Structure to design on (613 residues):
């Protein structure tokens, strides 16, 4: 039988261990964040936002280069993904939460979780086989589809859970005044769950925006702005995560610097989306 | 008054309000839901179909057991180096990350004052949001060179002086290799494991803790006897999901593991994982057999991820009190 004294000492030891391990783990994580922010802002300059990348020779000769085409491409590809993913994800979410008795729901839930757990690179391979191969060319569309595969399971999941938070009495109130079910969902449940839905879209968008693996062999990358805007959709397009990878493994010091700049732009983009999502959920709790 | 009521009741309703509106809505929802199911099956089918060339050539077992990956001269493809690399890095990363991540989860949930807990939790979520490539660029330019100078070189020099027989096991200390990739992987899954642990601990009912306190338990005893047993299903499945994350993690590993496609691997030396070889070679692959072999590696990755996810789902179902509701 342990004495009370020994048990109290053990209690203190465990508390100390927990504090120490928390600190030792948080330090390297914070260092990564701080280093990227510090180094990234140092590497930013004006031409980064106005020029296109061009050939390595351009950077070696000290001419101004930048990633304006990459940033435009990122926005285009990410929004193609969002436009494809939102209807599918929301539809599946509605099916899961508003028709809980539907026979397909258990299968759908398992498949959705499976899809969510699949590595993003496999979603890239799928988009490659479904879009790139038939089209015969790498394209922004294929990249958008690959990102949609990343977003869809997340949106389905968040839509389901945010619709579920709306009490059934609200639906019953709608049904009681004679509204059909579709009108109840569209006009009472979805507006009431609006914040939750948008938060889900933001989280899915942010997750997909940081992914490079599905884009490497779908949107492929491009050193120049396309001549015509359709080139953004039907031709190879540059995106920030994929360009960041190419810059980091390139042999040119100037490109490494540009990689840090791309890192801070990408990080800011993703973090702003996440902070927006968290602020939205906080508002809902009040 | 009576007339208006009658008028409203007898006013002809638009069709969408009478019978086909609901049917249409349900049909659209089901089609959208079915497309997700179709997507999951399409992924399996596409990977299977595209890899059939390689699997026919080498046989499933032969492909998985093949130790040689030679896309240049002999066009022989075997997946064993990548299976091995993925398993070693993922298991290593989980082994490093598991206890610290749980420690943070417990600290935030049970010990930290509310304000500090909120700060740490937000920080963890923020760090989890860092894209993989951003961690990768930090690894390439900061972490790998630092490891080479401060850890690998001293160990290598010591081995060269005192135990030359160990050198092939230690491997060349170029900085990019299996150990570097494992540590970075561990750092990347810690926030994820922590968040899932935190969720599991949050679900432990207050009464459970109070019962233990009422018996005179100290705080640690409450955690060990009341909180952790209750949350073990969530923590365990969280760890398995993190393991799945580590298996599929692509960019940071591809940037740091050094990308050596053939055995023998060494502790510090370069290696490769299944996702990293796909990322590195898919863009440049020209031969059909090479492409098909990469797809076959994708298929293996698919099967492993599927198994890992199913195990996690099974554990949640088995241990959770609510009976397997979505967590």
């Amino acid at each position: 039988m342990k004495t009370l004294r020994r048990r109290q000492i053990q209690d203190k030891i465990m508390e100390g261990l927990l504090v120490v391990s928390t600190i030792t783990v948080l330090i390297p994580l914070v260092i990564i964040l701080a280093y990227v922010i510090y180094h990234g802002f140092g590497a930013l300059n004006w031409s980064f936002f106005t020029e296109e990348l061009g050939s390595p020779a351009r950077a070696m000769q000290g001419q101004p280069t930048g990633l304006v085409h990459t940033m435009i491409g990122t926005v285009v590809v990410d929004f193609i993904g969002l436009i494809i993913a939102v209807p599918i994800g929301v539809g599946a979410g509605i099916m899961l939460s508003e028709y809980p008795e539907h026979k397909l729901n258990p299968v759908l839930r398992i498949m959705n979780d499976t899809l969510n757990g699949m590595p993003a690179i496999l979603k890239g391979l799928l988009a490659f086989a479904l879009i790139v191969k038939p089209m015969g060319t790498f394209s922004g569309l294929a990249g958008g589809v690959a990102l949609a595969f990343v977003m869809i399971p997340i949106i389905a999941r968040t839509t389901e859970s945010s619709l579920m938070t709306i009490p059934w009495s609200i639906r019953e109130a709608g049904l009681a005044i004679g509204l059909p079910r579709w009108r109840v969902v569209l006009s009472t449940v979805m507006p009431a769950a609006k914040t939750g839905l948008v938060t889900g879209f933001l989280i899915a968008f942010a997750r997909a925006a940081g992914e490079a693996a599905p884009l490497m062999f779908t949107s492929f990358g491009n050193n120049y702005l396309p001549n015509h805007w359709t080139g953004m959709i039907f031709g190879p397009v540059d995106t920030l995560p994929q360009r960041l990878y190419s810059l980091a493994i390139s042999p040119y010091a100037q490109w490494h610097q540009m990689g840090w700049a791309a890192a801070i732009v990408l990080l800011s983009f993703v973090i702003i989306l996440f902070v927006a999502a968290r602020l939205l959920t906080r508002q809902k709790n009040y | 008054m009576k007339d208006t009521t009658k008028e409203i009741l007898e006013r002809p309703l638009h069709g969408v309000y009478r019978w086909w509106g609901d049917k249409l809505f349900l049909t659209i929802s089901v089609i959208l839901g079915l497309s997700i199911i179709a997507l999951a099956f399409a992924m399996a089918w596409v990977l299977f179909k595209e890899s059939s060339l390689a699997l026919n050539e080498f046989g499933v077992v032969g492909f998985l057991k093949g130790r040689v990956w030679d896309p240049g001269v002999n066009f022989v493809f075997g997946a064993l180096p990548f299976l091995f690399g993925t398993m070693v890095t993922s298991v290593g990363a989980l082994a490093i990350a598991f206890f610290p991540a749980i420690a943070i989860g417990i600290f935030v949930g049970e010990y930290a004052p509310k304000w500090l807990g909120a700060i740490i939790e937000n920080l963890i979520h923020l760090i989890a949001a860092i894209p993989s490539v951003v961690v990768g660029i930090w690894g390439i330019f900061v972490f790998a060179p630092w490891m080479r100078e401060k850890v690998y070189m001293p160990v290598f020099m010591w081995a060269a002086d005192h135990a030359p027989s160990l050198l092939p096991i230690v491997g060349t200390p170029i900085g990019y290799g299996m150990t570097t990739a494992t540590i970075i992987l561990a750092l990347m899954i810690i926030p994820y494991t922590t968040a899932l642990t935190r969720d599991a601990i949050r679900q432990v009912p207050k009464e459970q803790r109070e019962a233990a306190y009422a018996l005179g338990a100290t705080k640690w005893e409450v955690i060990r006897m009341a909180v952790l047993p209750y949350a073990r299903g969530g923590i365990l499945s969280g760890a398995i999901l993190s393991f799945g994350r580590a298996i599929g993690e692509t960019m940071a590993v591809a940037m740091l593991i050094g990308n050596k496609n053939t055995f023998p691997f060494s502790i510090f030396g370069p290696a490769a994982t299944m996702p990293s070889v796909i990322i590195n070679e898919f863009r440049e692959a020209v031969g059909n057999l090479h492409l098909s072999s990469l797809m076959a590696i994708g298929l293996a990755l698919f099967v492993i991820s599927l198994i890992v996810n199913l195990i996690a789902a099974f554990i949640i179902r088995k241990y959770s009190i609510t009976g397997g509701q979505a967590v």
Observations:
- Chain B touches chain A through 87 residues (CB under 8 Å).
